[in-house]
Amino acid sequence: MILVLLAVATAFPFVWLLATSLRSSGTVFSFPPVIIPRPPTLANYVGVWQTMPIARFFLNTAYITGMGIALTVVVSALAGYPLARMRFPGRDLIFYAIVGSLMLPQHVGLILNFVTMMRLHLIDTYAAVYLPSAASVFGIFLLRQAFLTIPNEIEDAARIDGASELRVWAQIMLPLVSPALATLAIIEFSAYWNSFLWPLIVLKSPDKYPLAVGLLYLSGLFAHNTRYVAAGAVMMTLPMIVVFLALQRYFLRGITVGAVK
Amino acid sequence: MERQTLARPAPAARAGRRILTAYLFLLPALLLLAAFTFYPVMFGTALSLFEYDVITPPRFVGLANFRALWTDRYFWIALENSIKYLAVVPVLQGCAIVLAIWVHRSTRGLGWLRAAYYLPVVTSIVVVGILWRWLYDDAGLVNFILLRLAVLHAPVHWLASPGIALYAVMFVTLWKGLGYYMVIYLAGLEAIPPGYAEAAAIDGANALQQLRHVILPLLRPSILLATTLSAISALRVFEEVYVMTSGGPVYSTYTMFYYMFDQAFGALHLGYAAALGVVLAAVTIGLSVASFRLLREGGLSYY
Questions:
Q1: Which member of A145, A224, A261, B24 has the greatest number of CB atoms within 10 A?
Q2: B301 falls within a domain
Q3: Which of B117, B122, B270 sits opposite A10 (nearest CB)?
Q4: How far is CA B287 from CA B87, B186, B280, B281, in A?
């Protein structure tokens, strides 16, 4: 009972945000708080869409997220494979170096990553946003664990057919680890979709901003019109919530895999 | 033709080829990690001994940056705030454990409860910040409810009072992180065989005793992991502060990471920022070692 109450209290700000975004008048500061707007209207959404380059922010976010997920998944799946299924000198050393890098103070690296991006003339490009996080230690670890569980017989059968290593990987192994690939893709979706600090540092022109950075601008610009800001916030959050509710299982699996490390 | 050479190469060539294949698979990951993790952390640490503003070449200054930190008022303010922020860790972990135990026990609606608590975790920090800025407003919902319940007599300026703002931001960290740590503890609880608590109950242990002597000791690996993760992110807190208070009022929420960010990307004092980063790293490492000691060698040994 307390649990349900607490859950309602935790989720309440979201309901209130949605209600505010659907109201035709008033502000977020009216009492008692409005939960069912009468009559509900989409006018705020239309208004924000027309006055702000929300569509542009959406495209930017979608592009960065898409590229980020694709790169991270491919890089992790490539690296996890030899670490799990091949014997070669230096394998264990590389594996421990990769996992051990989690303990490095990443925030110190932030400064130099900015300098690197300047040297590569990538400041104010999308690539600067997704490249530094494309090699995910978590992803490599997750995929390695998944490749480890595949029985040897399957691999041997493929090898007898004389398939090249890349074909064995792409056509036999990858389909067998698809749950792990999905888990990684979803975890990375939320990471890239919500990423805020790094885009803020490397992107300079507003027409390249992702939603998170754009929304902060929006909230400064429309400080007096909280309904517009609420509409923008809902538009940014909704895709994430839909993906989360639909694929909850993979999300939670991702966290617990990380936790068992 | 290609196939035949593949089928019967000399043993040494085959071994060489195998090693090459393995490294080719690893190449993209290793290149990216080297460029964006190992290189920047190593040279970022070294940069703390230099003066560097991106435009002119770095100039070696020895420990001058650290000496400057020692007499820098804002450094001490930022360090104090970052360390104060650690107060969120025990509260957050305590709440997450209790919540996980409750959610674990309740069989009905488990999925929905978990989802409700997890919602803030997957929400952008910008949306969370905007929401809580409204909730904390003088005319906001938090004041409204507390005034109605007669807990308060006058509205509190949650984010505008130097004595309160840091704790108000901490509460948002708690709200946003609760679901994440709850899931870690749920996984830990699921790994405990149900027989343990039952056996304790049969021996006459009450709920509190079961928690203290059975559940908590068995959860210790999860507690260690979650506490360390949460302490590291508390020391590095930045985004919540940036979105909600911008370090104010009068530097009362100015943290180490915030100062580093300002110095690096605002003032372009990259060497000084690196020195701040190194101090923050040293505090973090010291604390992680301490928490490992404390939680691993504590009195609750069970294996």
A1: A145
A2: no
A3: B117
A4: 13, 25, 11, 10
